[in-house]
Amino acid sequence: MDDSSERPPRSSSRPHDDTPLTIEELSLHARVSPAFIRLCIDLGCETSGGRLSQAGMIEWLAFNYEAVRTAAGLRAMAPIDGVRGRAKRALQLANTMLTLLEFAESRCTRLDEKERLRAVQKLVERTV
Predict the structure, then answer these.
(1) Which residues of the chain have pLDDT under 50?
(2) Torsion angle (degrees, nearest 10) of CA 23, 80, 103, 72
(3) 3-state SS string for 44-90
(4) Which candidate, 32, 26, 33, places its Cα nearest to that of 54?
(5) Distance of CA 125 to the CA centre of its chain
(6) Which of 128, 44, 62, 47 lies closest to 100 in space, CA to CA?
(7) Distance from C-alpha of 123 to C-alpha of 43, rounded to nearest angstrom
(8) What residue ranges do the domains of the chain occupy?
(9) What is the rounded distance in angstroms from the CA atom of residue 75 to the CA atom of residue 66?
(10) Could you give the CA distance from residue 18 to residue 35 in angstroms, rounded to a whole number?
């Protein structure tokens, strides 16, 4: 898709973010729904022996969030074509986070959790 200079930097702020994990382990480690992880894999996120690292999933998602959003029935986002450099990386990461948050909200049944997820979404939107 884009050349490697356009890729968001890999950040491993926590130990094991680069460690390949099973879907269940990654779900617990990253606090992400196993259904979301499976959707990413179904849409082309590569695994190694059925294992995937948090950093690998986030990097893949930064370039494929639109496909995930479409498959999950989430609203489309404004295209970032023509945006370059740091601004593009910031938008990719923000859109990645929003995709994770909106997917979680769409599957959540507890009103208090939905409200917290929406509050975090607004915070992410305000930062870009």
Answers:
(1) 1-5, 8-12
(2) -80
(3) CCCCECCEECHHHHHHHHHHHHHHHHHHHCCCCCCCCCCCCHHHHHH
(4) 26
(5) 15
(6) 62
(7) 28
(8) 17-127
(9) 9
(10) 20
Contact in structure between 124 and 94 (CB atoms under 8 Å):
yes
CB-based contacts of 39, cutoff 8 Å, min separation 6? 68, 71, 72
What's the N-to-C CA distance of the chain in angstroms?
Answer: 22
| List of residues 6+ apart from 99 with CB closer than 8 A | 61, 65, 68, 69, 74
Rounded-to-integer distance, Cα 75 and Cα 19, Å: 32
Strand partners, 51: 48
Q: What is the pTM of this model?
A: 0.85
Q: Which amino acid is at 92?
A: Q
Closest CA to 96 of 44, 36, 15: 36
The residue type at 3: D
Q: pLDDT for 40-72, tens place per residue?
A: 999 999 999 999 999 999 999 999 999 999 999
